[in-house]
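[Q] Does anyone have a clean structure-token version of this?
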Amino acid sequence: MKIRKTLRKLTAIAIALVILSGMLITSKADYNPVNMYYCDNVINWRGSLQFNVYVQIDAGSAANKQVIIHYNAGDEGWKDQNASYLTTIDGNKEIWVATVSGFAISGEYAIKYIGDGNTYWDNNNGKNYTNDDILGVANVEAIRTHYQTPNNYYIYAAVKNIGYAKKVTVRYTQDNWASYKDVDLSYYHSAPDGKDFEYWNCSLNLDENKMDDFQYCIRYEVNGQTYWDNNFGRNYDKSFYRPL
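[A] Here you go.
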């Protein structure tokens, strides 16, 4: 009887180890250290596109890193644009950015990351990205827009639709953060084509004489969590608008 019990225990342990091993292998196989963070549309006018692709990579200790935007250049075929390191967030996550621009480009792209000789792709689950894919793994992003007069500044933001009840706020200063104001944004419209994010906006009446000290950032509160877009610690200012 003792031998049978011992054999049963050993068998159970062996089965558990096999299952655990399979889980670890599956987890490692599914791991992808590269993700589109968000896309910043700078120009979309008369056939000319310019957009900045921000990429998040789980860098770890990888050496000889390369982040590449593989984009559709229309009649010229597919081209590669190298991204540059921007900053590190959340400990070991790096943000890289590349600018893609030109006439007749389609805005379609995928992201390639090479680290320690290994190559990883983020191709939006086989669909590729377009410049209309505003949010990747980021939950909030300030959106470039136009303003009509120097003291009437329109604020737009995109937020991931994490929960129904949400609050979106712009925090801004005109005295280099000696003081600041918070103004709520209002829901504007949902994203097209079933994309799971929303646009919110508001208008700020600013002191035209203090525009050189104007800075702002976006706060997004949902499900008890708070997310910020402060331009990776640099904040936004009057230069962050789309030229007419």
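[Q] Thanks! Anything notable?
[A] The two ends are 85 Å apart (CA to CA).
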